[in-house]
Amino acid sequence: MNRTILGGFISVKSVIESKSREIFKIYIEKSRYDKIMSSDLRIPEQRQYSALLNSGAECVFLSSDEFENLIDNNNAGGIAAEVGERIFTPSEEVLSLRNGYIAILDGIEDPFNFAYALRSLYAAGVDAVILPERNFFTASDTVIRSSAGASELIKACCVSDLAEACKTLKKNGYTLCATAKTDKAKDLYSCKVSKPFCVIFGGEKRGIKKEILDMCDFCIKIKYPRNCHYSLPACSAISIISFECAKKLSPHSKGKQNFGNGPRNKHLG
After folding, report:
1. By the 8 A CB rule, do 240 and 222 touch?
2. Which portions of the chain are predicted below pLDDT 70?
3. Cα separation of 73 and 60, whole Å?
4. Which residues contact 3 (CB under 8 A, 6 or more apart)?
5. Which of 89, 144, 182, 238 supports an S-S bond with 11, CB 3.0-4.6 Å?
6. How far is C-alpha 80 from the chain's CA centre?
7. CA-CA-CA-CA torsion sign (197, 126, 83, 21)
């Protein structure tokens, strides 16, 4: 099993909460810990340390030099963890999800964009994300930090064939919607969607595979108020589309929803 060192409280906390990886050890920089615990003003950080020490995982204190040799990350804040590979949800469970809101990522080619996409999808209330087997979870520390922990909290599965996964979703009653600027694409803000619903996002370079596009029920596009010679970055488009679809899919909205009245997300603050 491959082991990875994660840096920073948010990354480590998200793994603890989601149980998305086996945690072998949590590392704490001793001098920083002592300084914070002796302060009367740094209560939030003291609570972070308490959460780690009470997590049930083995916690090891290191000198500053030992911690610096462990992880080359100036933003780790004296907290790191040695963890195993990402534990994914079985594909059968995701593909048979009843009345779900699912997203598929096809061809995202940068670990930061991948992380930002997962961050938006989790915040937008997507129930699960389906990924190709080759994805950026191999760059775990970068993905977790850039997604603010959402990459661990969101339910995710990997499949060897995205087209076959789409066929299974269709058999299970899902409407498949692709995000593609084609002549027949519908305006995101005027189209209607209902659960079970799956939205498929492609990368900026390769887009969505034709085999998958051909089996989609319809395509949607973002209609720009201004004529532009460029498209939005994939992560920006994913944010806009995932939230707009969430609004349309809400049983309470009737087309409108005041997100400000909902409960605050305890994970992403």
Report:
1. yes
2. 1, 205, 252-269
3. 18
4. 24, 82, 83, 84
5. 144
6. 20
7. negative
The residue behind tokens 């066929």 is 167
Per residue in 12-57, pLDDT tens?
Answer: 999 999 999 999 999 999 999 999 999 999 999 999 999 999 999 9
Nearest partner of 111 among 85, 131, 87, 139, judged by Cα: 139
What does the alpha-carbon distance between residue 249 and residue 122 come to, in Å, rounded to a whole number? 15
Angle (CA) 11-42-37 rounded to 5° is: 85
Amino acid at 87: I
pLDDT score of 1: 66
What is the pTM (predicted TM-score) of this model? 0.86
Contact 138, 158 (CB under 8 A): no
**Torsion sign over Cα 129, 131, 135, 138:** positive
CA angle 209, 126, 161 (to 5 degrees): 30
Residue 195 near residue 100, CB atoms below 8 Å: yes
Strand duo 79-83 + 4-7: pairing: antiparallel
Q: What is the 3-state secondary structure (H, E, C) of the chain?
A: CCCEEEECHHHHHHHHHHCCCCEEEEEEEHHHHHHHHCCCCCHHHHHHHHHHHCCCCCEEEECHHHHHHHCCCCCCCCEEEEECCCCCCCHHHHHCCCCCEEEEEECCCCHHHHHHHHHHHHHCCCCEEEEECCCHHHCHHHHHHHCCCHHHHCCEEEECCHHHHHHHHHHCCCEEEEECCCCCCEECCCCCCCCCEEEEEEECCCECCHHHHHHCCEEEECCCCCCCCCCCCHHHHHHHHHHHHHHHHCCCCCCCCCHHHCCCCCCCC
Contact present, 149 and 119 (Cβ < 8 Å): no
